[in-house]
From TrEMBL, chains A, B:
Residues 10-140 form the Nudix hydrolase domain. InterPro entries: NUDIX_hydrolase-like_dom_sf, NUDIX_hydrolase_dom, WH-like_DNA-bd_sf, WH_DNA-bd_sf, WHD_NrtR. This is NUDIX domain-containing protein. CDD domains: NUDIX_NadM_like.
DNA sequence: GCAAAAGTGTTTGGGCTACACCCATGA
DNA sequence: TCATGGGTGTAGCCCAAACACTTTTGC
């Protein structure tokens, strides 16, 4: 190894994931109690391994907890305050992910002690994990305003009222249902199914699903996505 | 140190800066030829030191090259492909910054071999620095479309036509001057000065400066910032 | 038949776009 | 006086916001 490299200090590199889910009513974050820190809730995290990229590591860690693959995963921010971990200096790269709660629900408490918390009712968190969550919420709002990522939080089939409730929860407000559905449908990203939701309301709402082809393209383009 | 930490591999952590500048005509990036890599241009970068945060490190490195402080500096992305640096595994946190070219111009070539390159005419770059620049341009466009960060690239006093040229350069297009100035002025972020620019045009354009108070607040809020 | 949620239509105002003319000045 | 860039005004259009009524169905 060259001198220039030898003189430098190496640091531990961790990954932490802010995992968002939506249960039909409010926006939730998945927290765990890990290892030595029995008393404090924290984000799901782990260490970067020699053979993997940051993104691969984040996906691996997410898989360990949830058993899910093919999940929406986006790098949030690298946190590197010298004293963020009081034991040993660690740089943590935070990722945020959006998961469909229904897809796995059961798995999460098998190995880990994990629980969903409403974003408006979070417990004290380990290290700077609270900052990470705050930033992730901000980013989610920012991003969901222009990109149709909200679908990632719902099951394959969902109704427009469900989608509206999700947006209501994310922005902590109440959108106008008429303008909302007009706006959403005008994107042409949704395919109306023949099936109606049963049990929830008398009338029943039509199910929709995402047009995956169009969705892939739209993800990269600008869309102003918040109606009234 | 606890076992959990001991078993983990540490890595070198670097910082790289995409430094944008505007010379009145086109958008530029500042590149250097560093150390051993005499033959390849690269971004300005350095190693994370034990006592500093990521942001402090990025600011320090930027200061070393340009002598500037109080510069617009924003974390772009952490790059961690296992083989991005072929010699030793390194995680690099990239920052992008916007500097006022006029403020220092002279200093940059004293210690380092540095040069401004048009973003449309970049040389081959070291490692994954090309990806970093691409991402930074994308982010700059994305961000400048909604936040008034364009001012960071101009001197304290600037004219509306100068600002329009900057936006033209960033988006590689030509905005309509009437709509552009209406839009910019409607934000009320600019203070018109009594002074006119001399020498460039016959008539001379009025200088403006940023209303710092309002600007600080606006930075955090949504503004749709691109006219025709 | 009534309660509760789903679904749809209209009007209005503001902002964006497109476009054209006058102004100030140095040469 | 003329050439060059600076500065402003307007009409049309589209989109977003505000708002109310009808439909469906389980009880």
């Amino acid at each position: 190894m060259l001198d220039q490299y030898k003189q430098q200090h190496p640091y531990l590199v961790a990954l932490d994931s802010i995992i968002f889910g939506f249960d039909g009513e409010s926006l939730k974050v998945l927290l765990v109690k890990r290892g030595m820190e029995e008393r404090t809730w924290s984000l799901m995290g782990g260490w970067l391994q020699p053979v993997e990229s940051l993104e691969q590591a984040a996906a691996r860690i997410l898989f360990d907890l949830t058993g899910l693959t093919n999940v929406y995963l986006e790098q949030l921010h690298a946190f590197g305050d010298p004293h963020r971990d009081p034991i040993v200096r660690t740089v943590s790269v935070a990722y945020f992910s959006l998961v469909k709660v229904a897809d796995y629900e059961s798995k999460i408490t098998e190995t880990y002690q994990a629980r969903w918390f409403s974003i408006y009712n979070l417990p004290p968190l380990l290290f700077d994990h609270g900052d990470m969550v705050d930033l992730a919420i901000k980013r989610l709002r920012y991003k969901a305003a222009q990109h149709p990522i909200g679908f990632e939080l719902l099951p394959e089939k969902f109704t427009i009222p469900q989608l509206k409730k999700l947006y209501d929860a994310v922005y902590n407000t109440e959108f106008d249902k008429r303008n909302f559905s007009r706006k959403i449908l005008s994107t042409n990203l949704l395919i109306k199914l023949d099936e109606k939701q049963k049990g929830f309301s008398r009338k029943g709402a039509y199910y929709y699903q995402v047009d995956q082809t169009k969705y892939q393209q739209a993800t990269d383009s600008f869309l102003n996505f918040i109606p009234t």
